[in-house]
Design brief:
- With 738 residues, the chain is an alpha+beta fold.
- Among the domains are: 321-525, no CATH class; 634-732, Glycoprotein, Type 4 Pilin (2-Layer Sandwich).
- Helices cover 35% and strands 24% of the residues.
- It has 22 helices and 26 strands.
- The protein has a 20-stranded antiparallel β-sheet, with helices on both faces.
- The radius of gyration is 35 Å and the shape is elongated.
- The two termini are 31 Å apart.
């Protein structure tokens, strides 16, 4: 219940804010382009004017009290999409032409959503037009209440207290169980109450800043939120900032941070004993903090989840990794996939855990399997994890595609190969040798494929000689052929020897670990799974996607946007390539997962070229705007029905005051139906007189009713409707008289 009240409180704040309304490339390289068209004169960095973003930076995160329990930042849409950041598009986004274009788009967007009155349009109006900074929220402990207080901060486009107070009154008319105790003024904040929660709002008409405090309601208690924020002793929270820097360094993306340890210490007493025990057994009780969000960090767009939690409890089910990543490629690689293998100690613990849950027969079968494996390989099954790993790779470099395997114990690996060669040379055609090719030592392994081994066993006792049949020959002759060269403790593996010769003789080797950190901005030391790929011309593609998005928005809003004013990718000297990546990490103290991309997560929508880009943009806009527009049209029809019967109120008042009898609709100047009301009726008794419109039209309001009722004793009129609130006329959204 308290959580629901908190959500309603935040929704109320958003509702108030919504009214604030004052104020693809060809893939050619740069050299190829020079051969086709004359290039423009070189443009120095200072040649193009820059302009600060129209979207303000978040401020609450810079002055958080030390006891803060959580922090949430909801991004400003324009800030996330268009504000300068550390990415490869920073020059383009900081350009004066871009900033001025965004200002025009915001103004035009405000005009598009301004006439719409339904709830959906109000949210869109807030997101795209009114809010000019991220919305920040922070929870701080309240020792006298079972829930924390919530601090709020943003900045809005409004510059007068009169306008703000008009909006507050509109909010009150459309919010149930809410009470406005005090309005905005130059000296006092606004105070709103609803349910068990009070909302204190302070507005600065000079800079548009809005500060708020949500707290449990107490009779006759007022909080001077203006003084509260002014005197709040705070600073950037270092432990939170460390996580934020990995997710969104510029402050324009989304970010959620929880101090899990502090939350558990403060509120574990409110958790039922059985659930608390489950939390303790899972190891979550030891978690320290959590960070999640999307934005720009280390010059790349990112979505990332980070959980600081030690390797205890159920957390031990996941292995931890301390990778080497000393693999080398021939020149810069373009693609890398790396998977990590756990060590033997981890596998022993997993074996013990798994066996404890198995039946006696299952355990016996497993031990028989281990016994058979040791007979074949000469080692225990789990010894494999002492020999292989920690990394298995697939990569593409300047030579070819390769697989690679890191060895923990190279000597034991080759001893096993020699044993298998001696024992199974005849039965499975197992061959292993080292040969020279053009001065390069290449290891060669050949053995029957799994299919061949199975086929040989299946036909061993048959009376026919399958070797004389073509399909029998095929089934029993397929082989696995592997070639590899050594690179330190890594085996570089291929299915032919030629590319291995080229790889070995290529002199400009690149350490994969360095390429990951310097070019791809990824670190694989603790990765369980890592995928990273270099994409040619992706910064240029991202920039042109951005321009198409601006153009589509200008078409949608009617803003005057001239793309001829924007610089080209070549003028901006954008990087020739970008990257995309996926990573899952597990260390002794942390779990994390991240997706990296060049600028925007939705860049993949534009792979089909210009036409597909336009379709994608229009589709996104349609998904947002069309439902809001439909709601607006339905609400308009409902309002017309209200007006059809509301116009008769004066006549009813007059006739009843003169004690005249009203027998039918015609007596008050109405017809039995209208374009919007399929049926108009009256009913009355000694206490009240009611006008009823039964609506027609869209299925969402068809046969719904609007009732206007006059209390004959007090003379007051009230309205009731059984339509959804967002379709109801403003006068019918409350049971109050009007």
């Amino acid at each position: 219940m308290r959580f629901k009240i908190l959500i309603i409180s935040i929704s109320l704040l958003l509702t108030f804010l919504t009214g604030c309304n004052d104020k693809e490339t060809t893939g050619q390289s740069n050299n190829e382009i020079n051969n086709v068209v004359a290039s423009p004169p070189p443009i120095k960095k200072s040649s193009r004017a820059t302009k600060a973003s129209v979207i303000k930076t978040p401020l609450l995160r810079e002055r958080l009290p030390s006891n803060v329990l959580s922090y949430i930042r909801i991004p400003n849409v324009w800030g996330y999409l268009t504000a300068p950041n550390q990415s490869s598009l920073n020059k383009a986004l900081a350009d004066k032409v871009n900033s001025e274009a965004v200002e025009q788009l915001i103004t035009a967007t405000r005009q598009v959503f301004l006439p719409l009155t339904d709830d959906g349009a109000a949210i869109l109006h807030f997101l795209f037009a009114d809010m000019n900074a991220p919305l920040e929220m922070a929870a701080i402990p309240n020792d006298k209440a079972p829930i924390p207080d919530i601090l709020l901060h943003t900045s809005i486009n409004i510059s007068s207290y009169e306008k703000a107070n008009e909006l507050l009154k509109q909010v009150m008319e459309n919010t149930k169980n809410a009470h406005l105790e005090q309005t905005f003024s130059a000296t006092d904040p606004a105070i709103l109450h609803f349910g068990a929660i009070s909302l204190f709002l302070d507005f600065n008409n000079k800079n548009g800043e809005l500060n708020g405090l949500l707290a449990p309601r107490k009779k006759d208690k007022k909080i001077d939120v203006r003084t509260y924020f002014k005197e709040m002793q705070g600073a950037p929270l270092l432990k939170m900032q460390a996580l934020e820097d990995e997710i969104d360094q510029d402050g324009q993306g989304a970010f959620v941070w929880l101090d899990i340890r502090a939350l558990i210490n403060k509120y574990s007493g409110n958790v039922p004993a059985d659930k608390l025990l489950a939390i303790q057994m899972s190891g979550l009780i030891e978690a320290k903090q959590l960070g999640f969000g999307f934005g720009t960090a280390e010059k790349k767009g990112r979505i990332k989840l980070i959980l600081d939690i030690p390797n205890t409890g159920m957390r031990q089910v996941l292995p931890t990794f301390d990778n080497v990543f000393d693999l080398k490629s021939a020149g810069k690689p373009s693609t890398l996939i790396a998977m990590s293998l756990p060590d033997r100690n981890y596998m022993i613990s997993i074996e013990s855990m798994a066996l404890s849950k198995q039946t006696k027969n299952d355990r016996s079968a497993y031990f028989e399997l281990k016994k058979e494996f040791k007979k074949i390989a000469g080692i225990d099954l789990l010894d494999i994890f002492d020999i292989l790993g920690p990394e298995i790779f697939y990569f593409k470099d300047q030579i070819s595609h390769f697989s690679a395997l890191h060895l923990r114990d190279k000597s034991r690996f080759y001893k096993i190969l020699e044993r298998l060669k001696t024992k199974y040379a005849k039965e499975y055609n197992f061959q292993y040798d080292v040969r020279q090719s053009f001065g390069v030592d290449i290891h060669y392994l050949k053995v029957d494929s799994i299919n061949t081994m199975i086929a040989k066993k299946a036909i061993a006792d048959q009376p026919y000689n399958y070797d004389n049949l073509w399909f029998g020959r095929f089934l029993t002759s397929t082989k696995v052929n592997l070639y590899w060269v050594e690179s330190g403790d890594n085996l570089i593996i291929s299915t032919i020897p030629q590319d291995l010769v080229d790889y070995t003789q290529y002199t400009k080797k690149v350490v994969i670990k360095d390429w990951l950190s310097e070019q791809q901005h990824q670190v694989g030391k603790n990765s369980m799974l890592l995928v990273s790929s270099n994409i040619k011309d992706s910064p240029t593609t991202s920039y042109y996607i951005y321009l198409k998005m601006l153009l589509a928005l200008s078409d949608f809003t009617g803003a005057k946007l001239d793309l001829f004013d924007f610089p080209t990718a070549k003028m901006l000297d954008l990087p020739e390539s970008g990257s995309v990546g996926l990573q899952i990490d597990s260390s002794d103290s942390r779990l994390s997962m991240s997706i990296n991309y060049e600028q925007y997560l939705f860049e993949g929508l534009y792979g089909g070229g210009s036409a597909m880009g336009t379709v994608a943009i229009v589709g996104i806009l349609a998904a947002i705007a069309l439902p809001a527009y439909k709601d607006y049209m339905i609400a308009s029809e409902t309002k017309k029905g209200f007006i059809d019967i509301n116009n008769a109120k004066a006549t009813v008042d007059t006739l009843l005051s003169e004690k005249q009898v009203i027998n039918n609709i015609a007596d008050i100047g109405l017809k039995s139906s209208s374009k919007t009301c399929k049926k108009i009726e009256i009913s009355q008794n000694k206490v009240k007189f009611t006008l009823t419109c039964t609506l027609s039209g869209d299925y969402l309001i068809n046969n719904k009713q609007i009732e206007l009722t006059k209390n004959k004793k007090t003379g007051a009129w009230s309205c009731f409707t059984n339509t959804k609130t967002k379709y109801a006329p403003r006068q019918c959204r409350s049971t109050n008289h009007y």
